[in-house]
Automatic annotation (TrEMBL), chain A:
It comes from the Bacteria. This is PadR family transcriptional regulator. InterPro entries: Metal_resp_DNA-bind_regulator, Tscrpt_reg_PadR_N, WH-like_DNA-bd_sf, WH_DNA-bd_sf. PANTHER family: PADR-FAMILY TRANSCRIPTIONAL REGULATOR (PTHR33169), TRANSCRIPTIONAL REGULATOR RV3488 (PTHR33169:SF14). Gene3D superfamilies: Winged helix-like DNA-binding domain superfamily/Winged helix DNA-binding domain (1.10.10.10). Residues 16-88 form the Transcription regulator PadR N-terminal domain.
Length: 124, 458
């Protein structure tokens, strides 16, 4: 199953902030974590992560610092800031509302499948 | 430079030479995209190499791993578009060059449009100066020249009919108001209207520049940059033109021809307005040539202005009795605050938003604080005087501008301090700079349109 592009884009910010809330990380590791969390079903275009991280940095939600990897390459690490944690809480609340609404819709849709719709009568 | 080339050798010696060459080539391709900086390429290269290693661990060879990794990174066009959206300041110098690529016909047509509009601005001014009184020309100066600049920008941005309407209406309305008001010939409201009208019209130019999207902070900041570069270009053209004219006049005088009578009546009315349109075209076409001049000037003048302000503060504070200072002091203070604001605006507009706070940022906060201190001393002196003699149109206009500048700079100082201490991102400071600008246009409208009837046109 492939996840719709818009859905991936909408969930990218809370996912990244949530992963960084667990501790400092860097681009490739963040993507691998997304892969693990979604069981490989959320496929990002790798490069697109970086403009997103830079936007979060500009908005002050994450802080970046340059370090070195095990093999001595330059590597940019990202850490969540206090403002980032606030934003994450806010996003989480928003997603809870969306998820809750969707669950109700799924349930009524399922009911609808079991009991054929009588909507037409109501309108008539 | 080392991170890209030297370090990997430790991890992957000889056998992977082909892979190293491929990665090098990839770096080259990515680096050519203006929106992606060297640091971004380093960051993505680190990613690419990890991806390649992971893929090799699953049994792919170098070639296969590289191909898959590059494919997963995304196409360069998509990537650079995303980076461009996030880092528009890097693209500022590229906007026009990208637009010109489709063909050379457009640039020739553009040159024709520019020369036509420049000639139009010159001729309009020439006709006005030979037909109308000096006062009336001064009152309408902005309305004579800037519609041509607006027309150029509107043509260049291919604005919609609605935006054209939004551009034409203010010109017509302001023209009617200014010319139908029964100004006293030497009244101060006339002088104020002469001074405020260009500011009003400049806001209209701004709407044309941003193609009607004046709500966008980023576009407004682009207009600020445009204004600064236009001033730089215009000054350069004026100096060059002055030298050329001087040489011509001297040469002609050797031959017994006196050029001076034509200078005021023909050459200046035609050339001064036309040069503005040409300067605007140069800024649009050659942004990358002087893109760094305004920021460099701010770097040079920020410390100097700080010294000047500290000296002014000492002089004002120790002068004792400031009670008999006149509105000149207030106007002088406005000029100083405008200067400080420009220094702040242009360094903020050119600053890399991701760079950490530096010594220069601290210096800038000091500058703003010093300006506010000097202004506080001058304002106290002025307020006692206003309390004594009441408000004249001049004092009200100067005081209003002073208060606007005060609010603008004071909140800038708060935001800049918060940025220095890591409490707020630079984006807040940038957004505040451009969001406050419409307030000045609003005040200029008040001064030009509402003041004259309120103060009885004197």
């Amino acid at each position: 199953m492939r996840i719709d592009k818009d859905l991936v884009a909408a969930s990218a910010t809370p996912l990244v902030l949530g992963i960084l809330a667990d501790g400092e990380s860097y681009g490739y590791a963040i993507l691998k974590r997304v892969d693990e969390l979604s069981g490989g079903r959320m496929q990002w275009t790798d490069g697109m992560l970086y403009p997103l991280l830079h936007r979060l940095e500009r908005l002050g939600l994450v802080e970046a610092s340059w370090g070195t990897s095990d093999v001595g390459r330059r590597r940019k690490h990202y850490a969540i800031t206090a403002a980032g944690r606030e934003a994450l809480v806010e996003r989480q609340a928003q997603w809870d509302v969306v998820a809750h609404a969707l669950q109700q819709v799924w349930r009524s849709a399922q009911d609808g499948l079991q009991n054929p719709p009588r909507v037409a009568e109501g309108w008539a | 430079m080392a991170p890209g080339t030297a370090a990997p050798d430790a991890a992957s010696p000889g056998p992977h030479a082909a892979l190293e060459a491929q990665i090098d080539q990839w770096r080259g391709y990515v680096r050519r995209r203006e929106a992606i900086s060297a640091a971004d390429v380093d960051e993505m290269e680190d990613h690419l190499r990890e991806r390649v290693e992971d893929l090799r661990a699953t049994g792919l060879d170098d070639d296969e791993a590289f191909l898959v990794a590059v494919k997963r990174m995304g196409t360069l066009d998509d990537l650079s578009r995303e980076f461009a959206q996030e880092h528009s300041e890097r693209l500022w110098k590229q906007l026009v060059l990208v637009g010109e690529q489709p063909g050379r016909t457009r640039s020739w047509r553009e040159l024709a449009v520019v020369l036509g509009l420049a000639a139009g601005a010159g001729v309009a001014t020439k006709i006005a100066t030979s037909v109308l009184d000096e006062d009336v020309v001064a009152l309408n100066a902005a309305l004579l020249v800037l519609p041509f600049l607006t027309a150029y920008l509107a043509w260049k941005r291919q604005v919609t009919a609605r935006v054209v309407g939004a551009l034409v209406v203010p010109f017509v309305a302001l023209g009617l108001v200014l010319n139908l008001y029964p100004f006293e010939p030497t009244g101060s409201t006339l002088v104020l209207a002469v001074l405020a009208a260009p500011a009003v019209v400049w806001a209209v130019v701004g709407v044309a520049y941003v193609g009607g999207r004046w709500r966008s902070d980023a576009r407004r900041m682009d207009f600020v940059r445009f204004t600064g570069e236009l001033a730089v270009y215009y000054t350069l053209i004026a100096i060059g033109g002055g030298v050329l004219l001087g040489l011509t006049t001297v040469t002609f005088s050797l031959a017994g021809v006196d050029l001076e009578p034509y200078l005021d009546t023909w050459i200046l009315p035609l050339c001064v307005p036309a040069a503005l349109i040409v300067a605007a075209w140069l800024v649009e076409a050659k942004q990358n040539v002087v893109e760094n001049i305004a920021p460099v000037l701010t770097r040079v003048f920020t410390p100097l202005t700080l010294v000047m302000l500290l000296a002014a503060f000492v002089v004002l504070a120790t002068a004792g009795d400031l009670a008999d200072v006149d509105r000149e002091l207030l106007i002088l203070m406005d000029a100083i605050l405008v200067l400080v604001l420009c220094l702040l605006l242009y360094s903020v507009s050119a600053r890399d938003p991701l760079a950490p706070p530096s010594f220069f940022d601290g210096l800038q906060v000091l500058l703003v604080v010093a300006a506010l201190a000097v202004d506080a001393v001058a304002l106290t002196a002025m307020l006692t005087r206003i309390a004594e003699f009441g408000l004249s149109p001049n004092k009200t206009a100067a005081l209003g501008l002073n208060l606007l500048l005060l609010v603008h700079l004071a909140w800038s100082a708060v935001l800049a301090t918060a940025f220095l201490r890591g409490r707020r991102p630079l984006a807040d400071l940038v957004a505040w700079q451009t969001r406050f600008l419409p307030a000045y246009a609003g005040w200029a409208v008040l001064v030009a349109v509402v003041f004259p009837p309120v103060f009885g046109f004197v």
